[in-house]
Design a protein that fits this description.
Strand order of the largest sheet: 5-4-3-8-7-6
Shape: globular
Radius of gyration: 20 Å
Keywords: DNA-binding, Transcription, Transcription regulation
Protein name: IclR family transcriptional regulator C-terminal domain-containing protein
Organism: Streptomyces lonegramiae
Helix content: 40-55%
Number of strands: 8
Structural class: alpha+beta
Order of helices and strands: HHHEEHHEEEHHHEEEHH
Mean pLDDT: 83
Pfam families: HTH_IclR (PF09339), IclR_C (PF01614)
Length: 261
């Protein structure tokens, strides 16, 4: 008896689709120019016509999208799916974020990096503490946010320069935002020894964001945990916040290991 052809074909298509998404995601997070369909087909070793057909289907389903220059990037549908598959982490993070928000009278956020952007996964706030309304999926630049800098804390200066190549940093963020890759790398060099990013007025005037990386069992940065609020309220509590964020990030790291097969 032979295998059922439709099932075999579906399994093959699924594997190829995952290969395509993974290749696009790795290229995007590396900071290099994205793949077009022809280059993508060459990268993963499939026929260009098949690559064209499958990338179009992935675009139609909201997992990929085409930029104006025809290169591909991972789209919101993929991130929503990834969030759903990691629902244990999101559910487990809620009490941690809620406690941080109440304890420090500030907004508390869990974010991941999406190329040069920071994508918010979950946010909690103490009453009247959040400086601006937020929602899951909100994106902000990595170079002028505490979470963004925490997500890049292991990057070298050269890696940061490669990631930000072609992006205009001037005019984005608050008065203390980095205006170049060198300034961003220098800010991280300053904060790295203490294990916590202290972003004073980098996204908005008068707002401080403290952020730490969340690491998986292999020590890789997976996400960023942050509290943010008025600088005058948070800065006197900096050491307390540092200790609390560090312990909370370790707890989230353990959740990641449990949630990841």
């Amino acid at each position: 008896m032979t295998a059922n052809p439709p099932k075999a074909q579906a399994a093959s298509s699924l594997r190829t689709g995952l290969q395509i998404i993974n290749a696009v995601l790795e290229r995007e997070t590396s900071g290099r120019t994205g793949f077009n369909v022809a280059r993508l087909a060459q990268e993963i070793g499939i026929d260009p016509s098949k690559a064209s057909r499958m990338t179009q289907e992935l675009c139609d389903r909201g997992f990929l999208e085409r930029r104006e220059d025809s290169t591909l990037r991972v789209a919101a549908g993929f991130h929503e799916l990834a969030r759903a598959l990691n629902h244990g982490l999101l559910r487990g993070s809620r009490p941690i974020l809620r406690r941080l928000a109440i304890e420090h009278g500030a907004g508390a956020r869990l974010s991941v990096r999406d190329g040069v952007l920071v994508r918010l996964l979950r946010a909690e706030a103490a009453a009247a503490a959040e400086p601006w309304p937020v929602r899951a999926g909100l994106v902000t630049p990595c170079w002028c946010t505490g979470a963004g800098r925490a997500l890049l804390l292991d990057h070298s200066g050269d890696e940061i320069a490669a990631l930000l190549q072609g992006y205009e940093l001037i005019g984005v963020g608050g008065p203390n935002a980095a205006h170049s890759a060198d300034e961003l790398a220098a800010a991280n060099d300053r904060d790295r020894p203490g294990g916590m990013v202290a972003a004073h007025g980098e996204f908005e005037h008068g707002i401080t964001e403290y952020a730490v990386p969340v690491r998986d069992g292999q020590g890789q940065i997976f996400a960023a945990l942050a509290v943010l609020g008025r600088q005058t309220d948070l800065r006197p509590r900096e050491e307390t916040i540092r200790a609390d964020l560090t312990a909370s990030a370790a707890a989230l790291g353990r959740l990641i290991d449990v949630a990841t097969p």
